[in-house]
# Entry
Amino acid sequence: MMVYGLLSALLLVPTSNSFSTLITFDVDGTLVSSSPGWEEGAHGRAFAHAVDTILGAREDGKQLIGKRTIPELLEKHEFHGSTDGLILLRLARKAFGLDSDAAYTVHEMMNEMYDFVSKCDDDEVAKGIAPLPGVLSTLQTLATRYGDSDTTQQRVAFGLVTGNVEGIARRKMKALSIYDTGVLTPLPQPLGGREWGGVEHLRFLGGFGSDYCSGDIENPERNYLDRGEQLSICVERCIDMRKSHEHTLERVVHVGDAPADILAAKAYVDHPTRPDGLCVSVVGVATGSYSVEELQEFVWRNGSRKVGASCVKRGTRGWQREGVFGSMWADNASLLVFGQLQPLAPRRCQH
# Structure
């Protein structure tokens, strides 16, 4: 399969049983496309419901948002590519004029969001969103090739790094049949965080918006710095899953459609929890709001620590050093490999 072959080459997944790789996916714009009306779906409506329910109750029951949608209340840059927690806080400021006070209630509002979505059926959850073309078949192939019924023996683990509330992410993955591909590495038990009632059977590896929220809506850099924290959480969970086995996590590859995904991976390079020698890569896919040219320019402008910035062209073999761009599943992809201040040895981080 051409798509699968390109993805395998792009990620440089090794065949040695002693090598362990974690591949993480962003959700919106990377695995899932949004169409007009997404804000009327269960996830989109859950924001206003949560803010009105939690904060309205503290303001004499006021419902200041009501049926107004996110695009009606916020500028695009205030919600596009942001995390659920930061969107909630921006809505709280818009509707109730609350800033720091609302930060103390963000997890309460996230719980209310999930309670709202948990009462919706799969059609409501899937309204206005759909898997991108080629995603399901590619993920199914990856699951067949690298999956193992004993997750501790998997050479490649797959998870999500997303600003979505975890329980909502589980519902979305099930409603869109992404969960059914079998690619997402299941968690035998909760590893940190909370359990989400009604979707315990859909538990899988990831770092989610409900795991971390800085509460800082003044600093635009938090859109990607919070995602960097979520990537860190996902990596830690992957390591915890395998710490009693011989597998050593040596490489993390994050796949995303936006500059925030590239910057999140780059921020994780400097994160205090990153194990020494862990190679961190990011694959940018032009499947969302950014063109391949925009991602390419962004990669090159932010590659001060790059070991390599390359991609596979359709029909080529091996790597090229020119930083060319080629096809992934629905569009194009770029690869930026981050290392330490000194270039990593080829055996540690191939590119």
